[in-house]
Amino acid sequence: MAQEIERKFLVADPSFLKPLTGSQVKQGYIPGKERSAARIRIRDSSAFLTLKSETRGITRSEFEYEIPLADAEEMLETLCAPPHIEKTRYVVEWKEHTWEVDVFHGGNEGLIVAEIELATADQAFEKPPWLGREVSQDVRYFNSNLAHCPYGNWLDEGPAGV
Prior knowledge:
Blueprint: E1 3-11, E2 23-30, E3 36-43, E4 46-53, E5 59-67, H1 69-78, E6 81-94, E7 97-104, E8 112-117, E9 131-134, H2 143-148
Antiparallel strand pairs: 1-5, 1-8, 1-9, 2-3, 2-6, 3-4, 4-5, 6-7, 7-8
Protein backbone atom coordinates (compact mmCIF):
# COMPACT_ATOMS: atom_id res chain seq x y z
CA MET A 1 0.00 0.00 0.00
CA ALA A 2 1.28 3.50 -0.83
CA GLN A 3 1.88 5.58 2.30
CA GLU A 4 2.43 9.32 2.59
CA ILE A 5 4.18 10.52 5.74
CA GLU A 6 4.26 14.29 5.65
CA ARG A 7 5.01 17.17 8.01
CA LYS A 8 3.73 20.63 7.22
CA PHE A 9 4.96 24.03 8.44
CA LEU A 10 4.09 27.65 7.85
CA VAL A 11 6.85 29.68 6.21
CA ALA A 12 8.03 32.54 8.41
CA ASP A 13 10.39 34.17 5.90
CA PRO A 14 9.61 33.60 2.19
CA SER A 15 12.50 35.78 0.93
CA PHE A 16 14.49 32.64 -0.01
CA LEU A 17 11.94 31.96 -2.80
CA LYS A 18 12.68 35.15 -4.79
CA PRO A 19 15.38 33.70 -7.07
CA LEU A 20 13.52 30.41 -7.60
CA THR A 21 11.10 29.37 -10.34
CA GLY A 22 7.97 27.54 -9.29
CA SER A 23 5.31 25.43 -10.98
CA GLN A 24 1.73 26.61 -11.40
CA VAL A 25 -0.74 24.27 -9.73
CA LYS A 26 -4.51 24.17 -9.97
CA GLN A 27 -6.41 21.48 -8.12
CA GLY A 28 -9.92 20.58 -7.09
CA TYR A 29 -11.65 17.93 -5.03
CA ILE A 30 -14.39 15.58 -6.13
CA PRO A 31 -17.12 15.54 -3.47
CA GLY A 32 -17.44 12.17 -1.81
CA LYS A 33 -16.63 10.21 1.29
CA GLU A 34 -15.83 12.06 4.48
CA ARG A 35 -12.83 9.86 5.35
CA SER A 36 -11.06 10.16 2.00
CA ALA A 37 -10.30 12.67 -0.73
CA ALA A 38 -10.24 12.43 -4.52
CA ARG A 39 -8.17 15.21 -6.06
CA ILE A 40 -7.58 16.37 -9.62
CA ARG A 41 -4.35 18.35 -10.01
CA ILE A 42 -2.83 20.13 -12.96
CA ARG A 43 0.82 21.09 -12.49
CA ASP A 44 2.11 23.10 -15.42
CA SER A 45 1.24 20.76 -18.33
CA SER A 46 0.89 17.47 -16.38
CA ALA A 47 -2.24 16.15 -14.70
CA PHE A 48 -2.92 13.66 -11.92
CA LEU A 49 -5.77 11.90 -10.15
CA THR A 50 -4.92 11.34 -6.47
CA LEU A 51 -6.85 9.33 -3.92
CA LYS A 52 -6.02 9.84 -0.24
CA SER A 53 -7.29 8.15 2.90
CA GLU A 54 -8.08 9.83 6.17
CA THR A 55 -4.95 11.18 7.87
CA ARG A 56 -3.83 9.43 11.05
CA GLY A 57 -1.26 11.60 12.79
CA ILE A 58 0.99 12.54 9.88
CA THR A 59 0.40 9.34 7.86
CA ARG A 60 -2.19 8.38 5.24
CA SER A 61 -2.59 6.12 2.23
CA GLU A 62 -2.07 7.85 -1.12
CA PHE A 63 -2.53 6.59 -4.68
CA GLU A 64 -1.62 8.89 -7.58
CA TYR A 65 -2.09 8.33 -11.31
CA GLU A 66 -1.09 10.49 -14.25
CA ILE A 67 -4.05 11.28 -16.50
CA PRO A 68 -4.46 13.15 -19.79
CA LEU A 69 -4.40 16.94 -19.38
CA ALA A 70 -7.66 17.43 -21.31
CA ASP A 71 -9.41 14.93 -19.03
CA ALA A 72 -8.12 16.73 -15.93
CA GLU A 73 -9.31 20.12 -17.22
CA GLU A 74 -12.78 18.71 -17.86
CA MET A 75 -12.88 16.95 -14.47
CA LEU A 76 -11.92 20.19 -12.70
CA GLU A 77 -14.77 21.99 -14.39
CA THR A 78 -17.44 19.29 -14.17
CA LEU A 79 -16.64 17.06 -11.18
CA CYS A 80 -14.75 19.22 -8.68
CA ALA A 81 -16.61 21.47 -6.30
CA PRO A 82 -15.48 25.10 -6.55
CA PRO A 83 -13.49 26.96 -5.51
CA HIS A 84 -10.31 25.36 -6.77
CA ILE A 85 -6.93 25.67 -5.08
CA GLU A 86 -4.41 27.75 -7.00
CA LYS A 87 -0.80 27.99 -5.92
CA THR A 88 2.79 28.22 -7.02
CA ARG A 89 4.87 25.24 -5.89
CA TYR A 90 8.60 25.50 -5.34
CA VAL A 91 10.84 22.47 -4.83
CA VAL A 92 13.62 23.34 -2.39
CA GLU A 93 16.56 21.11 -1.45
CA TRP A 94 17.69 21.59 2.16
CA LYS A 95 20.15 19.42 4.11
CA GLU A 96 19.56 16.17 2.21
CA HIS A 97 15.77 16.63 2.09
CA THR A 98 13.36 17.94 -0.48
CA TRP A 99 10.78 20.50 0.63
CA GLU A 100 7.72 21.50 -1.37
CA VAL A 101 6.81 25.11 -0.65
CA ASP A 102 3.35 26.27 -1.73
CA VAL A 103 2.53 29.96 -2.17
CA PHE A 104 -1.25 30.12 -2.35
CA HIS A 105 -3.31 32.48 -4.51
CA GLY A 106 -6.96 33.50 -4.68
CA GLY A 107 -8.95 32.95 -1.47
CA ASN A 108 -5.85 31.51 0.19
CA GLU A 109 -3.61 34.49 -0.67
CA GLY A 110 -1.07 35.16 2.07
CA LEU A 111 -0.66 31.52 3.04
CA ILE A 112 2.74 29.91 2.44
CA VAL A 113 3.23 26.30 3.54
CA ALA A 114 6.30 24.04 3.41
CA GLU A 115 5.93 20.25 3.40
CA ILE A 116 8.47 17.48 3.79
CA GLU A 117 7.77 13.82 3.05
CA LEU A 118 9.49 11.36 5.34
CA ALA A 119 10.27 7.66 5.23
CA THR A 120 9.00 7.13 8.81
CA ALA A 121 6.89 9.19 11.17
CA ASP A 122 9.80 9.62 13.58
CA GLN A 123 12.49 10.39 10.97
CA ALA A 124 14.79 13.20 12.08
CA PHE A 125 15.48 16.19 9.83
CA GLU A 126 17.04 19.61 10.19
CA LYS A 127 14.57 22.49 9.96
CA PRO A 128 15.47 25.30 7.56
CA PRO A 129 15.76 28.79 9.11
CA TRP A 130 12.75 30.03 7.11
CA LEU A 131 10.27 27.64 8.74
CA GLY A 132 7.59 28.84 11.12
CA ARG A 133 5.07 26.96 13.23
CA GLU A 134 4.25 23.32 12.50
CA VAL A 135 0.67 22.72 11.30
CA SER A 136 0.88 19.03 10.36
CA GLN A 137 -2.12 18.04 12.46
CA ASP A 138 -4.16 21.23 12.04
CA VAL A 139 -6.88 20.13 9.59
CA ARG A 140 -7.51 23.74 8.50
CA TYR A 141 -4.25 23.57 6.52
CA PHE A 142 -5.20 20.44 4.54
CA ASN A 143 -5.64 21.50 0.91
CA SER A 144 -9.00 19.75 0.79
CA ASN A 145 -10.19 22.00 3.64
CA LEU A 146 -8.59 25.14 2.18
CA ALA A 147 -10.72 24.57 -0.93
CA HIS A 148 -13.91 24.85 1.15
CA CYS A 149 -12.78 27.26 3.87
CA PRO A 150 -10.09 29.50 2.34
CA TYR A 151 -7.39 31.01 4.52
CA GLY A 152 -8.60 34.51 3.64
CA ASN A 153 -11.88 33.78 5.47
CA TRP A 154 -10.31 32.77 8.77
CA LEU A 155 -11.09 35.14 11.59
CA ASP A 156 -8.72 33.93 14.30
CA GLU A 157 -5.38 34.46 12.52
CA GLY A 158 -3.79 37.33 10.67
CA PRO A 159 -2.23 36.97 7.23
CA ALA A 160 1.21 35.89 8.50
CA GLY A 161 -0.15 33.03 10.64
CA VAL A 162 3.34 32.07 11.84
